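Folding problem:
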Amino acid sequence: MKCFFKSQVFYLVISFLFVSFFIFKVSSVYFGNNPLNKSKETKRKYILFFPQGWAFFTKEPREPLIYFFSYSNNQLDDIIDKNFSLNTFWGAAKKNRIINIELQKVINKANTDSIPYRTEEFLGIKELKENVINRNNEFTHINIDRKYIPSITNGKYLIVIEEQLPWALLSKTSTHNKKFKMYTIEVIKN
């Protein structure tokens, strides 16, 4: 009995040390430049390892929010589900990650082709959606090879990039406008 108790304590201590080391090592990579975080490659490796819904480890706080809407019949439909939802199995599904990678390719193509965008300020994404639906939108054609974006179909899209407010204004989001960069594009796959 005494031997059994010692082995339980030993395994408990070993598992506690392992979990503590793991949490320390992973979280230390995200505290900026320090001796444990020598390169951005280390951070990328951890981001690829964790599911997308684990925002504590995988998201930069100042990273802009990107919204991706399909536009048809004067309606905007969300393409990307929330990461921590039932549709994405609480962040474990990779569908949103694939769409985000393809969306980034579309944004890069828009930047290299000098596609025009509008910068406007609104209180939130809901006000932006109402405003965009009620105006006459011109969609710029963007041609992309179909092998780069297999999940995105031909059609009209609104890509919105929301800049994050500074930390001091986060509690006053209902009174401060946020900056939104908007691309109205029509994707045509070659």
